[in-house]
């Protein structure tokens, strides 16, 4: 059933933006504006909406560029963007509400709520779906995004795909897992998950623009989504209406509504603190190691400052929310381009707002590891890295396709000019390192884990600063 949004009056909106901007008038805001505009040009972003929240209070909100290029409509803080996978945290919250009510159990097999499931799904629990450890995969390459499906048809399609591993063995991001959670919510409550969220989350928090996507409805301040094709801007790809309503990330919202959401996460208006704590605890795998993901949220840290965060990408939009919970600072970034890097903008804005949230070099007590990394980056760029440097499992994941993509990336970045150790820690039996790499044509954050035998067990080049 469609529902209608309420809009704050124009006068109230203007007053709000004036107060927010005035609150944040300091040296950092000029730097933030300069950086966002430069990054928009570098990423070819049509428009960006930004909000900074401190102690649950909105302190800065601003729009940049265009929400609609054809009509030259500027982005405002009231501009409505699509959530992408940032919407997963709302699905996870709905599940936890049902857990608190005793209607769902995290460690119950999902067959209790969904009915008959394939043999390969028999041991999947609700917790597995929430943490992306079920073994379920993503939408297959031959999935028809232009066909309308019923929930039963979507569930049947998902169940026809063989899981990649036994539940709990590994972490692997799965949109199908969260699609399934939305169907589970419907079966348990008798309500479409979007209606459940509207009644239990959006209305109580005054999130007046947040709702399930509907391209048919007339929605004031809605941004258009875009993609780049051979450096030419095109409108977003069209998908069927039903695939814009699934629980893996199909919401409309503004940065103003997301600021209200962030404020609510500090209290108990939605859930008990113990429930939030479960959502924000890294998942423990069957081998007793952990992965930095909870229920619809990922985890990181910079200089010991914890970040609870998530990004999203869907149909011409990308999004990011980063909550620096020790500092009670949150940055929200929404843009309207497929392939945009909202997370990079968000993390850099946080560092400009509070310099303690920027990565800083630390004492390098293992120069031999740093030398190994420098040599590794060079060999990866040349496509000559030694396969024996990697664990057997990682070798199978990297070679040849991923190694070829990494080589192309590193070549495009040019000469490595600077390499700094910025993180060092332990994770189970692994030594974990983080290096800030500065190249001729950009920068990357290198995250790497080594085994006791100094084999590379995990490696990623992240464009987030």
Task: Describe the model.
With 465 residues, the chain is an alpha+beta fold. Helix content is 34%, strand content 23%. It contains 14 helices and 18 strands. The strands form 5 sheets. A 7-stranded antiparallel beta sheet has the order 3-2-1-14-13-12-11, with helices on both faces. The protein has a 4-stranded antiparallel beta sheet with strand order 15-16-17-18, with helices on one face. A 3-stranded antiparallel beta sheet has the order 4-8-5. Strand 11 and strand 12 form a beta hairpin. Helix 2 packs antiparallel against helix 11, helix 3 runs parallel beside helix 7 and helix 6 crosses helix 7. The longest helix is centred in the first third of the chain and has 17 residues. It is globular and about 60 Å long. The chain starts with 9 loop residues before the first helix and ends with a strand. The N terminus is likely disordered.
Summary keywords:
single chain; 465 residues; alpha+beta; seven-stranded antiparallel β-sheet; four-stranded antiparallel β-sheet; 14 helices; globular; disordered N terminus
Provide mean pLDDT, rounded: 93
Please summarize the sheet with the most strands: 7 strands, antiparallel
Strand content: 15-25%
| Rough outline | globular
- Rg computed from alpha carbons, rounded to a whole number of angstroms: 22 Å
Which regions are unreliable across 5 or more consecutive residues at pLDDT < 50? 1-26
User: Main sheet: which strands, in order across?
Assistant: 3-2-1-14-13-12-11
> Number of DSSP strands?
18
* Structural class computed from helices and strand pairing: alpha+beta
Q: Classify the helix fraction into a percent range.
A: 25-40%
Instruction: Give the terminus-to-terminus CA distance.
Output: 42 Å
How many DSSP helices? Answer: 14
